[in-house]
Design a protein that fits this description.
mainly alpha, two-stranded antiparallel sheet
Length: 289
Amino acid sequence: MPTISDCHCILEWEMSSKFTVDDNDCNINMFDKSPNFIWSDESPTNFQTALLLPDIQTQIDTFNKSIIKESQSSVDEAAAELSHIFLSAATNSLKRNKLRNKKIKTKKWFDGDLYHLRNKLISYGKIYSKFPYDPLVRGHYYKLNKQYSKLRKFKYKEYKKSLVEQLQNLHDDNPKSYWKLINDLKNNDNKDHSSAVAPSVWVSHFNGLYQLHESFKERVAKLEKKLDNLEKNVCFNNLDKLITEKEISFAISKLRCNKSPGLDNISNNMIKHNGESVTKERISCRSFA
């Protein structure tokens, strides 16, 4: 029987056993999506200035005076409050990236030539917006616009012409392909779904997929009993000691800048440039979250 051990306790586990955990037993506090703050050369100064604002200082004082109990809920509340302080300062001092919705190309006749010419026209349009009174820029922009419009009409005309030729050729030679093309143009879905698996069959399949086999129930009961006994044993190690200010300073100094934030939306830049507004002792609560 293999043995897996760590600094807390020794777990004995039989590799042939099968054990599942209900998803309802796992309570995970998720944060909102990161606001995508832009960190530039002026950001440290602006961020530290934002931390000195009266509203932020009031939140920091309240946070420093709060009592954090040794419980998961208390630590989660403290971590969320600390995240709110950093994000409030970042919102007042840092810029954000704008999210752009990309349009999906649905027209079959819109090929690569049109795509590249349109991008070229859009790029030159930005130059034209900066120099609207320059005759050379203006003339070149309208020339590109004329070429794009002409090519767009030509591609669409050729596409319709090719469809007419296909319909004429397939009408007598291949009626099946002819009606298939007609249905595609009408966007009709005439697929046969009679052979699809019934929903009740899928539900029955997945309900019994992870059910424990009868031959493993006795073994799992023994393992659960062993785990309960191991959890009752109290052990102490280095992880049970309080985190010192020196350890926090060393950990902060090792953080790498310009990295994506985690689930709490606090980037390493914010932590390294927080100044003296937030005490290091309070930052340690993030390590328990």
